[in-house]
Amino acid sequence: MHLTMAFAQLYSMLLSLLFALCSPSVLSQTSSNITPGNSLIAGEDGSLWASPSAEFAFGFKQIEENGFLLAIWFNKIPEQTIVWSVDGQNLAPKGSKVELTSNAWFRLVDPNGKQLWDASLSRTRVVAYAAMLDSGNFVLCGQDSHNLWQSFEQPTDTILPGQVLNQPAQLVARYLPTNYSRGRFLFNLQPDGNLLLYTTFFPTDLVNFAYWSTQAFGTGFSLIFNLSGYIILRADNGTIISTISSNTLSTQNFYQRAVLDYDGVFRHYIYPKNSGSSTGSWSTFSVTPSNICLRVNGVMGSGACGFNSYCTFDGTNKSCQCPNGYSFIDPYDVMKGCKQDFVSQSCDQTSREIDLFDFLEIPNMDWPFSDSEQFELVSEDWCKQECLADCFCSSVIFKNGYCWKKKQPLSNGRVDPSIRGKALIKIRKDNATLILKDNNKDNDRSQLIIIGSTLLSSSVFLNLVLLVVACLVAYRCGRSNPKGDQAVQLTSTMNLRSFTYEELWKGTKGFTEELGRGAFSIVYKGFLPNTPGNLIAVKKLNMVKGSEKEFEAEVSAIGRTHHRNLVQLLGFCNEGEDRLLVYEFMSRGTLAKFLFKDQRPTWYQRVDIAIGIAKGLLYLHEDCSTQIIHCDIKPQNILLDDAYTARISDFGLAKLLKIDQTVTTTAIRGTKGYVAIEWFKNKPITIKVDVYSFGVVLLELICCRKNFDMNVEDEHKMVLIDWVYDCFHYGKLDLLVEDDEEAQIYMKKVEEYVKIGLWCIQEDPSGRPTMKQVVQMLEGFMDVSNPPYLSSFTSQR
């Protein structure tokens, strides 16, 4: 026991020494001094003060047509990400000036000379000069070069390597990604030493609910983001109280920042410095808390998302969504919540509206702290009937014989596999969106029938004729959408939205902007203001033999999946002869487009993409309620989002396995070059066919070339897997990356990844690893042995 404690103390001392050596006080900063009398004017070209290396800049960033933000930003990357700013609530108009005056004031004034902000310095403290440092810190210094004021001590929502926050200190999330006014979440290092994340009673900064905490208490604590990439809470005696993020990537090779994002998640981001101006991007290294949707449980307030909405989290990104029958109050600010799009149930005792309502089922969902009543040892049907009999009941949560009736507005909504229960949301049967709108033709028709019936009530015969006409109209409407019941059934069993053809026609401007096409479908770009991100990809299936089966396969396979490395299916259209699927839009396009162009992605990006694809397949193979074999993994079916995160798409060829099933038989599927050997031998198909296809894609990622290339001069290099094995067998792996200077730095990792790829494409499926083993090998948690000899597959391709 004593020996263990001694080792623990020694370990803590060594870590403290490491952090001390990497603290900002040890490393000197260079700067270009800004002397009194200098100024910057909003709207003028080149109106900035750059750090000596030009990695950071201080100046005005235009946010609106006549609105400028005084800010500090990363200056060498295309995004020019802002890390500090002044009063985002009140933007400075064009012509505003920030100046270091001759009498040593540092202030921001509008074009009329009215002061908008100053550094709040004592008049007895004279500023000799200002400087934008390479650390991202802007400082005002006295005659003795001592800092009188610095941006590192006045943080907004971001901290940078080398920055220290002493208690008390706080970060305030911005309102929206492009709105820099104060938002709804706080990061607070309290006077007692505890570090917490809070929701607030917005629009005030009063704290509401603490959804994450280090549970540390005491005096003399500091939050340190050191130059080794670690974010720690440390006591003054050097003891590490808590590690918030432990990055092993050097700040010399990666830009880094930690941000309390507008959605309440504290994220540690990294950006490769040597990526080049066109291929780099911020990647998320860590998130705190691990799942914000489950952590926010405040009795007061809406929760992690707005009222009547629900939250999902894929391990990196939070998404707020409305259930069917509801829509966002403001699609551009989803935290405002969702409004009901149908007429509520009447509380009039003479009204018989019970039969007009039904329930939309969403599994693994809850709305804590919106309860009106609770019942035990009841059935699901009893729970539903109790809600139907209560005009104030908007939904119920049912779990293991427990029934919770919910009242509006609903708060703390979340969907997560750990919840187990289900939400039953009460909606009108007539497509869940019956609202009296001027443009609702069906509603207008109903109104006309009612008016006509009243006018002709004196004639029994005419009323009878009207009744017959109404029945014929209803019959025709029912025949016009023979799949209507199926659509309702699909949306009630999955969290999908049923779109009308007219909605998608308008959203895609008549299906004009094509993103891609396949054997049975064409994908178009669209815009819908009430969907996450607003941009969508609409897959229009051609009505040929097999497309109906493909439609059902995609809806069934994707509708119940949710993972950061899968493209999310938002909804579908099953109207008449039209079959359309609506996906979230992936701004960076396909991996094929990204990988096989002239300027290759960085080694870090390729590794990140490979791991992302592997994790997506692992989810399909092992974490879905119904095991899914994708059957067509290739770069064209891997899409990339804004952060170049890999997202698996196109489940049209997916093969579903039942719980007690491990193999299946089916006609050959997939794409030439990525198809496993067992397809050609008419053998039973298992999840190992996806492992094979992944192996080919992994080798393509390593070498930045297609699996078959007729344009190469050496015919031995035409088939990639044969060439890779030859290079591995003869110890010449450097030939695979001979034109890739970055990859040559990581030759040990290149060798490991080549071996993983060769293991994946073994002819015998049983010799291939599972995707779980692949992920462990890619992330370095499992040793990779040398693969056995490979047969030549060229003749089979």
Helices and strands in order, then pairings?
Layout: H1 2-21, E1 33-34, E2 39-41, E3 48-50, E4 56-64, E5 67-74, E6 82-85, E7 97-100, E8 106-109, E9 115-118, E10 129-132, E11 138-141, E12 147-150, E13 158-159, E14 163-166, E15 169-176, E16 179-189, E17 195-200, E18 207-213, E19 221-225, E20 230-235, E21 240-246, E22 254-260, E23 266-272, E24 283-288, H2 292-295, E25 310-313, E26 318-321, E27 326-328, E28 338-340, E29 357-363, E30 365-366, E31 371-375, H3 380-388, E32 395-399, E33 402-406, E34 414-415, E35 422-428, H4 441-455, H5 460-480, H6 484-493, E36 497-498, H7 501-507, E37 514-517, E38 521-527, E39 535-541, H8 547-559, E40 569-575, E41 578-584, H9 591-595, H10 603-623, E42 627-629, E43 638-640, E44 646-648, E45 655-657, H11 677-680, H12 688-703, H13 720-729, H14 741-745, H15 747-760, H16 771-778
Parallel strand pairs: 36-40
Antiparallel strand pairs: 1-10, 2-7, 3-4, 4-5, 5-6, 7-8, 8-9, 10-11, 11-12, 13-22, 14-19, 15-16, 16-17, 17-18, 19-20, 20-21, 22-23, 23-24, 25-26, 27-28, 29-35, 30-34, 31-33, 32-33, 32-35, 37-38, 38-39, 39-41, 40-41, 42-45, 43-44
Helix pairs in contact: 10-12, 10-16, 12-15, 13-15
EC number: 2.7.11.1
Family: Belongs to the protein kinase superfamily. Ser/Thr protein kinase family.
Pfam families: B_lectin, Pkinase
